[in-house]
Amino acid sequence: MTSPSAPLFQVENLHARPAVDDLDAATPPEILRGLNLTVNAGEVHAIMGPNGCGKSTFASCVLASPEYEVTEGRLVLHGDDITDWPTDVRAKAGIFLGFQYPQEIAGVSVIQFLRQALSARKGIDLSVLELRLATMDWMKRLGMDSSFVDRYLNEGFSGGEKKRNEIMQMAILEPDLAVLDETDSGLDIDALRIVAKGIREVRVDRPQMGVVLITHYQRLLDELAPDHVHVMVDGRIVASGGMEIAERLERDGYESFRS
């Protein structure tokens, strides 16, 4: 990919720990301990690491989750320091987070949710009919029944349906940066291939979109062929490279990357 003059997204020496509301509570230890990452437009980055290394904490910090406190470092999007920006402003600026465990929202249909999200993201107030027409193609691409958008958000959805719904949201909202937190979690190989195909097709429509994949498994990487693979251990990225990094992980495990 051709890099623009400034990176799409930069993470510089990021430190973070769980947020504490009780002033008398003990200060929790840092989970992120100096994480650095640069994503250029159009690049796909994969972050792999053992449980508890900080992968999901990093994803949460990208969207300013109140569950975590950034204690040092900064986040930069399109050259702007967004470290102090609230979640809604970051989302409007073009950051999308695909959740590992998407939440159920009873009483709110998928189409209603998409309409509100699109209005907040782009200021586009489409009618339900207009949005339904816009989603029909994506539902077909993702193997979703046309009645899917009338169901309550994630209520009674299978794991594969939840993840396909996340990819449809990403397609409709057209972010500049998509962070996908263990999108392959809980998927069988057929569902994973459908989700991976959806990600590829979104990238065809939006070739400048940057993607950060957080995953445990090489099988998603085999489907998406990331430009860069990173290994996270103890809250920082300790190795970066191409698919050879994932192959080394399959062969030697995470212990081989510990200093």
Structural features, described:
There is one protein chain. The mean pLDDT is 90. The protein has helices at residues 55-62, 87-93, 110-122, 128-141, 159-173, 189-205, 218-224, 243-252, and strands spanning 9-18, 32-39, 44-48, 68-77, 80-81, 95-98, 105-109, 152-153, 177-181, 210-214, 228-233, 236-241. It starts with 8 loop residues before the first strand and ends in a 7-residue tail after the last helix. α5 (159-173) runs parallel beside α6 (189-205). With 259 residues, the protein is of the alpha/beta class. The protein has eight helices and twelve strands. β11 and β12 form a beta hairpin. It has a domain at 9-102 and 177-257: 3-Layer(aba) Sandwich (Rossmann fold), CATH 3.40.50.300. Helices cover 35% and strands 26% of the residues. The strands form three sheets. It has a six-stranded mixed sheet, sandwiched between helices.
Work out the number of β strands. 12
Q: What is the distance, rounded to the nearest whole angstrom, between the alpha carbons of the first and last residues?
A: 32 Å
Low-confidence parts, pLDDT < 50 over ≥5 residues? none
Q: What's the arrangement of strands in the largest beta sheet?
A: 6-9-10-3-11-12
The amount of helix comes to: 25-40%
User: What letter string, H or E per element, gives the SSE order?
Assistant: EEEHEEHEEHHEHEHEHEEH
Helical run tally: 8
- Helix-strand category: alpha/beta
Q: Which range does the strand content fall in?
A: 25-35%
* CATH H-level superfamily title of the domain at 9-102 and 177-257: P-loop containing nucleotide triphosphate hydrolases
CATH topology of the domain at 9-102 and 177-257: Rossmann fold
CATH top level of the domain at 9-102 and 177-257 is Alpha Beta
Q: How is the main sheet built?
A: 6 strands, mixed
Shape: globular
* Rg, Å, rounded: 18 Å
Mean pLDDT: 90
